[in-house]
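Hey, quick one: can you model this chain's 3D structure?
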Amino acid sequence: MTMRIPSLLRPRCLLGATLVLATLGTAQAQLRVEISGVGANQIPIAIAAFADESIAPQQVSAIIKADLTRSGFFKIIDVSSPISETTAINYGDWKSRGADALVVGSVQRLADGRFDVRYKLLDTVKSSQLSALAQAAPPQLTRVSAHKIADDIYEKLIGARGAFATRIAYVTKVGRDYRLEIADADGEGTQVALRSNEPIISPAWSPDGTKVAYVSFEAKKPVVYVQDLLTKQRTVVANYKGSNSAPSWSPDGSRLAVALSRDGLTQVYVVNADGTNLRRLTTTNGIDTEPQFSADGKNIYFTSDRSGGPQIYKMGVNGGEAQRVTFGGNYNISPRVAPDGKTLAYISRRDGRFQLFALDLGNGQELRLSDTAKDESPSFSPNGKYIMYATESSGRRGALAVVSVDGRVRHSLSTQAGDIREPTWGPFMK
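Sure thing. Here's the predicted structure for all 430 residues.
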C-alpha cells in the first residue's frame, strides 16, 4: 500500500541551498478570511465602538466584531456612536432594537505607553451586567486585548472557552521558498518562524505554545526538529536512517510520538522532546504512521495498513495490542483527537474524494464535514469547537478552511502569495 503523499512533497526536483532560520519577522502576505455558514441559533449582540479607541494602533471593537462574526454564533447589530463602559445604559431601548446583549468599552493611553482597554458585557433581557474586563497592554498587543475580550464574550454567552486569542501555524510555498509561519487565529499578525528552499511539513504545537515540532528536508531527507519560538533554538529529535516524520506531542509536553523507518517499514516510536530515550511501540509487517496522543495521554491513535488498506487504530501509550477505530470507507488517514477526547477527526477517501470526517468515539457515528475533494491535515481548536484543515481553493492553490464540529459554521483562510498547507492550531495561552 502507498500512503497518500502530502502536497508539499510532490515537487520532484528541489535543489537545496542552506536553510535559513528567520528571526520572527513579519511575513509579507496576510491571510484573507471568507465566511460561509452560520450556527443554528445566532445570538443578536450589539457592539458599540469603544470610546477613544482611535488612539490605539487597531480598532478594538472591529476586531471583536470580526471574531464573533467568524464564530458563526452571533448576529452583529452595528452601533453608530461610541459608548463607554461608564455610560448609563437604557436596557429597554437596546432590547427594542433586537439586541440580547450589548458590548461597550473604552481605550486610554497610560503614561508608560501602554493602552488600557476596558469593556463591559451587558444582558439587555435581564437588565444586568454579565462580565467586565480591564487590560493594559503595549501597542503591539492591542489585537490580543481585543481577542481576549471576544473570548470572554464567547464564553459568557456560548458556555465554552473562546479561542480567538490563540495562534495557528502553517506552511506556505511560493516558488521554491517554504516558510513555517505563525499567525493569530484570525490569520492576522503573521510572522515567519522558519524559511527553507526544501519542504517543511507536519508542524505541531507544544502544549504550552512555546515550541513547534516539524519535519524539514534540509538534509535531503526528512528529519524531525523542535524549535523554541522565543529563543529560535532548534533541537534534532529524530535523524535516523530512512524517514523521520509525523511528530505529535504528549499532553504534558515531555515526549513526542514519531513515525520512523529506521528498522525497515515505517513504525511508531516515542521519544523524549530532547531526542533521548527512543522507544519503538509497533512491530508489524505493514506501515504504521501518523501517531497522535489521546487527550489524556494514555493512548496513541495512528494510521496503519495492517488490515489491507489505511485505517486508524488505537493502542496504549506503552504499546501492546492495537484496536481498529475506523470502519467507514476503505481509506482513512490523519487522525486528530479533540481536546475532550470524545471526537476523532480524520481524512477519508470516498468516491475518489479526500474529505474531512469526524467520528464520535462514544457511539461510533461519523459525520462528513467538508464538500471539497483534496483535504489534508486536520487540527482541532483548543476548545474543541472547530477543526482547521488544508484544502484547495478554486485556483488550485492550497488554502486553509475552518469548520465547526457540527458542520454548520465555515470559513476559509487563503493568500494570493502561493500555497498554504499543513495547519496546526495552537493551545490556549496563559
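One thing worth noting: The chain has three helices and 31 strands.
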